[in-house]
């Protein structure tokens, strides 16, 4: 029996995760990697996020990232490890996170008591995360916690993000949604990445995207006009509800008061980051 208000954990995650994600939409990582001899902008995301695994190949990344085309991943890995070591990539990502957060939030926010409190609360939540069947979380959980409060908070947000994400992939597989179908159904809900950004970053062709949408139509999940049917809406709701269930432990451990306070603090930081232009305006949407 949960002691939290309905969807409190989801609301908390929704405002904690974006501050972690800002680093993937900023030029800072590219600059850091270029200094280390990796000029390929397309490799940034794979190298920085997969570095916690060590020198893995494309197969591991395709499996654990789920919605990227294997051909795109294999274009960059494992070759990138010949240029930049996983250890150097992790250090570069942390430097990028520092510079991104300083630019978006300002030094005063980063050194504030609110940031220190948010870091303490988020790290406390991670104490109840589970490594079992959660490879991306488990790999990141082995990394040291940075000393600076804003980086400790970013690290904790990373752990909470990957913990929920690993559980979410379990629900997608259970629902019978392949990587492109998962993307297409999420986009159709109005809450997922726009087709423009998916085709730009995930490696799928326009033909593969349309084929996935057709498979969703054949299953009765997507209507002819591209909107989710009632069955599609119900399936996406069931996926998110099950993801919530699998991700409940960290927030139960934090407790209702702690979750409410972390949501308040994280919400303020994320709002400030978004107002400072942390994400592209056309990132989310059906078109």
TrEMBL record:
Entries under Pfam families matching the protein:
HTH_67
This one is known as SalK
């Amino acid at each position: 029996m949960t002691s939290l208000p309905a969807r409190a954990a989801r609301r908390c995650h929704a405002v904690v995760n974006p501050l972690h994600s800002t680093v993937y939409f900023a030029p800072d990582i590219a600059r850091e990697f270029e200094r280390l001899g990796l000029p390929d902008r397309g490799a940034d995301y794979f190298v920085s996020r997969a570095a916690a695994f060590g020198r893995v190949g494309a197969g591991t990344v395709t499996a654990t990232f789920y919605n990227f085309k294997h051909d795109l991943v294999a274009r960059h890995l494992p070759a990138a490890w010949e240029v930049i070591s996983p250890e150097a990539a992790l250090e570069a990502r942390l430097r990028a996170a520092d510079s991104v957060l300083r630019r978006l939030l300002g030094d005063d926010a980063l050194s504030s008591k609110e940031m220190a409190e948010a870091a303490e609360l988020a790290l406390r939540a991670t104490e109840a995360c589970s490594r079992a069947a959660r490879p991306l979380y488990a790999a990141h959980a082995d990394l040291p916690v940075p000393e600076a409060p804003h980086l400790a908070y970013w690290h904790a947000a990373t752990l909470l993000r990957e913990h929920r994400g690993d559980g979410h992939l379990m629900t997608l597989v259970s629902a019978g949604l392949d990587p492109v179908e998962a993307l297409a159904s999420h986009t159709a809900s109005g809450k997922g990445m726009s087709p423009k950004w998916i085709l730009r970053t995930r490696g799928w062709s326009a033909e593969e995207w349309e084929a996935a949408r057709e498979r969703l139509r054949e299953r009765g999940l997507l209507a002819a006009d591209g909107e989710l049917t009632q069955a599609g809406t119900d399936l996406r709701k069931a996926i998110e509800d099950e993801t919530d269930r699998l991700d409940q432990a960290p927030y139960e451990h934090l407790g209702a008061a702690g979750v409410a306070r972390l949501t308040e603090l994280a919400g303020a930081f994320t709002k400030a980051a978004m107002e400072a232009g942390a994400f592209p305006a056309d990132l989310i949407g059906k078109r």
